[in-house]
Design goal:
Blueprint (H helix, E strand, L loop, with lengths): L18 E5 L7 H10 L6 E5 L11 E3 L6 H6 L2 E5 L2 H9 L3 E5 L8 H11 L4 E3 L5 H9 L13 H9 L4
Parallel strand pairs: 1-2, 1-4, 2-3, 4-5, 5-6
């Protein structure tokens, strides 16, 4: 069972002019992203907070926590979010109107992150960092990039269920 913690008090989130929030999700380890961002923080002038999830690497230079019941405060406070390619996380970030760099976690055994990140970048909602070594460049691009604003498509599920139950197909 995952342990939830609030390692960083919300009052400490503001500091430097730009805050980058990194989230790797809850299901898989993503050591390469966490380690890269921890080391990159030495060269950047931005405050970086990392949600490390199940990863074993412990950041040395960045504020971090493993899990939290709700990430929305961190996302809302961030000027830029860097995330694994999980659909739930990506859409939550986009709905909050935040700049997003998506990074495919290659530890995931299917191609759903690749498919999602490819589509979101193609439509202009995110920057997809295809290689960790390009992330520093992609951060600079994202900070100056005008992203297309994401709006959720209408949900027709209740109507579809109602039609089905009433014999209308």
């Amino acid at each position: 069972m995952a342990r939830y913690e609030e390692a960083i008090p919300q009052s400490n989130l503001c500091g430097k002019a730009i805050m980058i929030f990194v989230t790797v999700g809850t299901a898989y380890k993503f050591e390469s992203l966490i380690k890269y961002m921890d080391e990159l923080s030495l060269r950047l002038d931005e405050k970086i907070i990392i949600q490390t999830g199940r990863s074993e690497y412990v950041p040395i230079y960045c504020n971090y926590f493993t899990f939290a019941k709700d990430l929305s405060n961190y996302i809302e406070e961030a000027s830029l979010v860097i995330s694994h390619g999980g659909a739930g996380t990506c859409y939550e970030i986009l709905k909050l109107g935040k700049k997003l760099i998506g990074v495919e976690n290659k530890n995931v055994h299917d191609s759903h992150q690749w498919d999602l990140l490819n589509k979101l970048e193609e439509e202009g909602y995110i920057i997809w960092c295809r290689e960790i070594n390009n992330l520093e460049h992609d951060i600079q691009r994202a900070l100056n990039h005008d992203f297309k604003r994401y709006t959720s498509p209408p949900c027709d599920i209740p109507k579809t269920i109602n039609n089905f139950l009433n014999g209308k197909t």
